[in-house]
Amino acid sequence: MKHEDYTVGWICALPTEMAAAVGMLDERHRILPSRPQDNNNYEFGRIGGHNVVIACLPSGVTGTVSAARAATQMLSTFTELRFALMVGIGGGVPSEEHDIRLGDVVVSKPTGTFGGVIQYDFGKTVQEDKFVRTGSLNKPPELLLSAAANLEAKHMMENHVVAKYLSEMMRKYPTMATQFTCPGIQYDSLYKPEYDHPEGYATCSQCDASKLIYRKSRPSEDVVIHYGLIASGDQVMRHGRARDRLRRELDILCFEMEAAGLMDSFPCLVIRGICDYADSHKNKRWQPYAAATASAYAKELLSVIPTKLVISTETAADVATAAGK
Known about the structure:
Blueprint: E1 8-12, H1 15-23, E2 27-28, E3 42-47, E4 50-56, H2 64-77, E5 83-92, E6 105-108, E7 117-119, E8 123-126, E9 130-133, H3 142-157, H4 162-172, H5 177-180, E10 225-232, H6 240-250, E11 252-256, E12 268-276, H7 287-303, H8 307-311, H9 316-324
Parallel strand pairs: 1-4, 1-5, 5-12, 6-10, 7-10, 10-11
Antiparallel strand pairs: 2-3, 3-4, 5-11, 6-12, 8-9
Helix pairs in contact: 1-7, 4-7
């Protein structure tokens, strides 16, 4: 394989996310040498008929700037890439309209005047201390939006195959089973937004159970795929009242920290597995499983995109160049 043989980029922020991504490959390829000025480390492989190159952000260096740098370097090395998938974990924003649970998947989808991702912390403060968001981010390419719509319709008629892909991954890599298995619904707790996690405790074992929000049991244990707006910014959201305020303002489904650095420089779809509720009760228990469900959805998405259609699409580098003119 050569650098020019790869048409799909896959970007992760954390090693856990990269492990889940590599676990979804149908076939792994040998590592290609890096090009000058490219500091990314890559994994290579195939999903269906697509050759995929996977990059992870430097350890401990997340955020929009780091994501933008990784994307720029990936584009300079792999000149035939057509688009990227930003796949990993995010903080869910549950509401009466969107019954989001831990392990579910949120996929960026253009809504109203937004292209699918909102940089919620970018703007200016004006009179009366009001914060006004400025600018807008590009929407994903039509090829990915069509594939996502295809899957959304398909899943209305039949189940998705997330569980199937997770089982295949764990058969192929048995050591992943201990970490990437679903923790269980007994560890999926949503607290009232005004109730903060008591300081000094790593888990919610000492949290007040009377502050839990009652939610009906689902008829199936399958994860649910949600489509809508994703809020992206450089700060971690871990405050229930701020989360709900931004939900009311922007109608967002989840928070994450990298996508805003990609959308204007790399044709991209964002896929996030929900690992917490973006409040003070967040912990890392659900991160591996959420990374795996997001990666499984990404694999299913690629399975409905014809290889010939990808090859006939304009390269990501050309799209970025045209956008910058």
